[in-house]
Amino acid sequence: MITAVELGLIYAIMALGVYLTFRILDFPDLTVDGSFTTGAAVASVGIVNGMNPWLATVLAFFAGMVAGVITGLLHTKGKIDGLLAGILTMIALYSINLRIMGKANTPLLGEETLISPMRVSGLLGSWASVAILFAVCLVFVAAIVWFLHTELGMAMRATGDNQEMIRSFGVSTDNQKILGLALSNGLVALSGAVIAQYQGFADIGMGIGLILIGLASVIVGQAIFTQRYIWLAAIAVVFGAVIYRLVIQMALSAGLEVNDMKLISAVLVVVALLLPKWKGFQKIIKNFKRTPAAVETKEEVRTNA
Known about the structure:
two-stranded antiparallel sheet, globular, 14 helices, mainly alpha, 2 strands, ABC transporter involved in vitamin B12 uptake, BtuC, 2% strand
């Protein structure tokens, strides 16, 4: 269970990236399947060649940003449909990732990584490592929430809500899309770099179907928690990623095979999409959100009246 939570928290960084494109920009970006592996490949090759793991991870982030910029340019300047632009970049990244690694798999066994200190100290696989990873996720959540409340971030949110309106204020929606895709894929690549260091290798196929995991994390989290506030929606994505990993682990423990993971993910997304439309589920969520403090406050108001 602890391992599933750890993985969920690392994948949560990727899910936050998907949240930026899927919810904020309203852009169906499939680049993440390739940029996730790009981050893992860049970090792994850098570490194997003696680079500091922190520097290798930062380079992975910027490599992911480049992938996002390419998708953004194809869509905005090349006038290619957003979905197709992401697919084209994802396909190209498969060959690029092979070029970066030079082979299909790059092992990190015996190498110094970001996870090594926790592994050596015995923290990995304990609730202490969960607390550390959760704190890291909160830092990313805080950074994203801060950014989305800046003038630039609000312009990006407006681009996703109403392009024509924000364009009338002189804002370049093309630049906003390119920036959003760059930040999103940077986070995805960063998550890939950390996952590679966590599991001890980078593999050319580790990003296949990742968009489904990201969407599942976003949809599941926000089906349970409200989307009224940006900060709460971002935290919901983190919890959604953890819930997703726990559901996967429970499904595998119940007897399903690893090959069934994509089917489990698809079913989970369908359920998360349908649940909010079920009136019974809406009542459960409303009752859950009625905190004791809120109930007491209402009773006090009635008494004073």
